[in-house]
């Protein structure tokens, strides 16, 4: 256990770490060796200033003859070549292509997400119902706008009048948040929540680029009082059930244990997240506080997982659309007040038709343990860094199997 702990902690440090007090939420990868560094440790003002970036060791190796392409981006927009669009005889438009595929793909996407009432969501249902986890399951909205999760046992969700400014106020206006540039599907510069609220409140037509926040976990902040996962999640979750209380770190050392049950996701009109599987094939609960999300789902069959692995390893990933290689793809529209459960390992992409606020969380459970570790092995094989994999998975698995 101690060796595993040391290995995992080592992977959380970057080679440039010098100051334990700097903000270490934003990372950047070397374009050659793919080593990850904290942006703050590199004293970089903005990762947006670089098309590609090379770490000092790679630059010092003259035999590589690498020239860093660290051109400052001018204020004039430059077109990005969309090779898939060119092949299809259409103008280059990496942002619009995703929306057009949703609207015009032939044949139309089937909609096969099952609906159940909120009181169905119990641990006994998850454990014993033969079809509980065979596909995504949706619970319709309830009429109580102040307590929108009251019809699902144990679920606590912010009221529907909650704004992005409210999120910034509760979590902390100066709190740094990772912001994704939708066009590149990569991290943008370091933002504070106050800056993010300013951006979100800007009318869609005046936003200079599409941005997305999908990884703000609010455990330990004042907003935690407004968010709680459904009872069936907490009763099934390995951490809640199996991690011994006496071995859990104190609150001030909370980075040493998994915090994945209280995410706030904030997407603007037109944003999308490309196909992915949640880390370690975790189960996901997903509630739309207000707005609208469109999911494309593909089941984790052997053929689909093979296609997914090939795509994530491909140098053409940015210009290839995985949807053409996946089988049995279905569509699910999730609107204000609705809540969805995503089973382990399902491949999915997400589109945001309008500004949307979401509360969601991830958890590991006993129902498909093989899938959790199959995905962990796939993440290792495709060189997904530890920081983007489920935190402390091996420690947690040891507790769950004890």
UniProtKB/TrEMBL annotation:
PROSITE patterns: JMJC, ZF_PHD_1, ZF_PHD_2
Matching SMART domains: JmjC, PHD
Keyword annotations from UniProtKB, A to Z: Iron, Metal-binding, Nucleus, Oxidoreductase, Transcription, Transcription regulation, Zinc, Zinc-finger
Record field: catalytic activity: N(6),N(6)-dimethyl-L-lysyl(36)-[histone H3] + 2 2-oxoglutarate + 2 O2 = L-lysyl(36)-[histone H3] + 2 formaldehyde + 2 succinate + 2 CO2
Cofactors: Fe(2+)
EC top class named in words: oxidoreductase
Domain JmjC per the UniProt entry, residue ranges: 218-380
PHD-type domain ranges (all copies): 11-61
Stretches assigned to coiled coil: none
InterPro entries for this protein: JHDM1_Histone_Demethylase (IPR050690), JmjC_dom (IPR003347), Zinc_finger_PHD-type_CS (IPR019786), Znf_FYVE_PHD (IPR011011), Znf_PHD (IPR001965), Znf_PHD-finger (IPR019787)
EC id: 1.14.11.27
GO cellular component: nucleus
Subcellular location: Nucleus
Gene Ontology terms, MF aspect: histone H3K36me/H3K36me2 demethylase activity; zinc ion binding
Main subcellular location of this protein, as a coarse class: nucleus
Family: Belongs to the JHDM1 histone demethylase family.
Protein name stated in the entry: JmjC domain-containing histone demethylation protein 1
Source organism of the structure: Malassezia equina
């Amino acid at each position: 256990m101690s060796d595993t702990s040391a290995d995992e902690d080592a992977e959380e440090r970057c080679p440039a770490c010098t100051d334990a007090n700097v903000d270490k939420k934003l990372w950047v990868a070397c374009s050659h060796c793919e080593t990850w560094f904290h942006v703050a440790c590199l004293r970089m003002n903005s990762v947006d200033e670089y098309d590609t970036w090379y770490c000092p060791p790679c630059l010092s190796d003259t035999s590589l003859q690498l020239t860093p392409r660290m051109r400052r981006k001018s204020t004039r927009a430059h077109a990005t070549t969309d090779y898939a669009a060119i092949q299809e005889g259409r103008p280059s438009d990496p942002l619009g292509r995703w929306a057009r595929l949703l609207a015009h793909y032939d044949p139309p996407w089937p909609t096969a997400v099952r609906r159940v009432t909120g009181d169905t969501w119990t641990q006994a249902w998850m454990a014993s119902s033969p079809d509980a986890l065979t596909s995504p399951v949706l619970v319709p909205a309830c009429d109580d706008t102040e307590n929108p999760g009251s019809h699902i046992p144990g679920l606590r969700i912010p009221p529907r009048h909650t704004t992005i400014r409210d999120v910034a106020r509760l979590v902390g206006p100066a709190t740094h948040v990772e912001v994704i540039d939708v066009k590149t599907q990569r991290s943008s510069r370091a933002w504070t929540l106050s800056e993010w609220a300013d951006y979100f409140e800007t009318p869609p037509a005046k936003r200079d680029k599409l941005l997305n926040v999908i990884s703000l976990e609010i455990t330990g902040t004042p907003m935690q009082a407004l968010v709680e996962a459904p009872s069936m999640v907490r009763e099934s979750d390995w951490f809640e059930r199996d991690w011994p209380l006496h071995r859990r770190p104190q609150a001030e050392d909370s980075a040493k244990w998994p915090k994945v049950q209280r995410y706030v996701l904030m997407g603007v009109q037109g944003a999308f997240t490309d196909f992915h599987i949640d880390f370690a094939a975790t189960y996901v609960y997903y509630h739309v506080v207000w707005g609208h999300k469109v999911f494309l789902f593909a089941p984790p069959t052997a053929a689909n997982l093979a296609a997914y692995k090939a795509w994530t390893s491909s140098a053409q990933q940015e210009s290839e659309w995985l949807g053409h290689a996946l089988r049995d793809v279905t569509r699910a529209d999730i609107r204000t007040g609705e809540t969805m459960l995503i089973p382990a390992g399902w491949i999915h992409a997400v589109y945001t038709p309008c500004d949307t606020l979401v509360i969601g969380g991830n958890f590991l459970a006993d129902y498909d343990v093989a899938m959790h570790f199959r995905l962990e092995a796939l993440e290792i094989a495709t060189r997904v860094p530890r920081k983007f994999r489920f935190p402390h998975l091996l420690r947690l698995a040891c507790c769950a199997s004890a």
